[in-house]
Amino acid sequence: MALKNVTLKATLKKGTFYWVTQVNADSEEEAVVAAENLFLTELENSSEWEFEEFEVVDQ
């Protein structure tokens, strides 16, 4: 197994969401599944989330 950095992107109706994490996996497919599972675990604690960084750009 190798440590892999995974970025998942979801295009939603009102924005885009990125999930970035590291997982141990043997393949790219396995890494994506592991990252998705970690995200689902984090959703259980979403009330504790707090955004730490932001960027605002005038349009």
Q: How is this structure best described in words?
A:
With 59 residues, the protein is of the alpha+beta class. It has one helix spanning 28-43; strands at residues 2-12, 15-25. Strands 1-2 form a two-stranded antiparallel sheet. It is globular.
Give the secondary structure arrangement, pairings included.
Blueprint: E1 2-12, E2 15-25, H1 28-43
Antiparallel strand pairs: 1-2
| Order of SSEs | EEH
Please, what is the average pLDDT?
96
* Unreliable residue runs: none
Approximate helicity band = 25-40%
Distance between termini? 44 Å
Short description:
By secondary structure, the protein is of the alpha+beta class. Helix content is 27%, strand content 37%. The chain starts with a strand and ends in a 16-residue tail after the last helix.
Attribute tags:
alpha+beta, globular, 59 residues, two-stranded antiparallel ribbon
